[in-house]
Design goal:
Elements lengths: L31 H9 L13 H19 L5 H10 L3 E5 L10 E4 L4 E5 H13 L6 H22 L2 H4 L3 E6 L2 E5 L3 H15 L5 H12 L4 H19 L1 H10 L2
Parallel strand pairs: 1-3
Antiparallel strand pairs: 2-3, 4-5
């Protein structure tokens, strides 16, 4: 495996581990369940999930990732992590840019057993923390990417894909035939839960993803806070007992 150097600058002795960084002091935050709800809403088959089952998919995906972290992860240093990946036959490449999607930070290429990390993501995350006066260890930012993609490697090689461990949802009925599909976004929810548990950080990496996305789109903190409140209200409506009962009566 060949790992390209990301920087030749001397390390900052004041930099800190991500597990010692708090986002709550500087930014609006959401808990992992509500962030999982935001992620699930992006799934192509989200409209077909019965509303009373939405919390089930989110909570099971989070639990799946947390359980995997307990079995396989241990807050590894970058050096330890690279050695583990080497033993598993996984390559790590740093790439200047994704060929087609600027929003992708890293990806696991199953056929090549390779994790690609895109350099702009490292720069963006480091700058994000610098703006809130947090000098974060660059190695930890790399590890953050590696854990997420390693989870997808483990899904393929060790314990199976998250979406295939959960019930498929019915999307269509044609005569006697019922068509069902897995909910692929549960894989991302689980990967973020895996990464958070493995690195022992007090915020979900999915929160960081959304903060980076919204700030890049020019959102203010007030707009982000209002959006998060809307997500919270939507989810609370789903989980209210009266709502579930009404939904059951409307769809016997």
């Amino acid at each position: 495996m060949k790992v390209l150097a990301t920087s030749k600058k001397p390390s900052d002795t004041k930099s800190k581990r991500l597990k010692y960084v708090s986002l709550e002091r500087s930014w609006p935050v959401l808990n992992p369940v509500l962030l999982g709800f935001m992620e699930l809403k992006q799934d192509n088959y989200f409209p077909f999930i019965p509303k009373e089952q939405i919390p089930f998919y989110i909570e099971k995906a989070i639990q799946f990732g947390q359980d995997a972290a307990q079995r396989y992860a241990n807050d590894f240093s970058l050096k330890e992590f690279i050695n583990i990946l080497l033993k598993q036959g996984v390559r790590v490449n740093f790439v200047n840019t994704h060929p087609s999607d600027q929003w992708i930070r890293a990806q696991y290429l199953e056929k090549k057993s390779t994790i690609e990390i895109y350099r702009p993501s490292l720069v963006q995350i480091k700058s994000f923390f610098q703006e809130i006066d947090e000098s974060v260890d660059e190695k930890d930012i790399i590890v953050l990417h590696l854990y997420h993609e390693w989870f997808h490697h483990l899904e393929e090689k060790k314990f199976g894909r998250t979406d295939r461990s959960l019930p498929k949802t019915r999307i269509k009925k044609w005569g006697p035939f019922v068509y069902k599909r897995g909910i692929r976004r549960t894989r991302e929810i689980a990967a973020h839960a895996f990464t958070q548990a493995a690195m022992n950080i007090n915020w979900s990496p999915l929160l960081l993803d959304y903060l980076l996305l919204f700030t890049r789109q020019g959102w203010t903190k007030t707009q982000i806070r209002e959006h998060f409140q809307q997500i919270k209200n939507q989810y609370e409506q789903l989980t209210e007992p009266e709502f579930a009962e009404d939904d059951e009566q409307a769809n016997p």
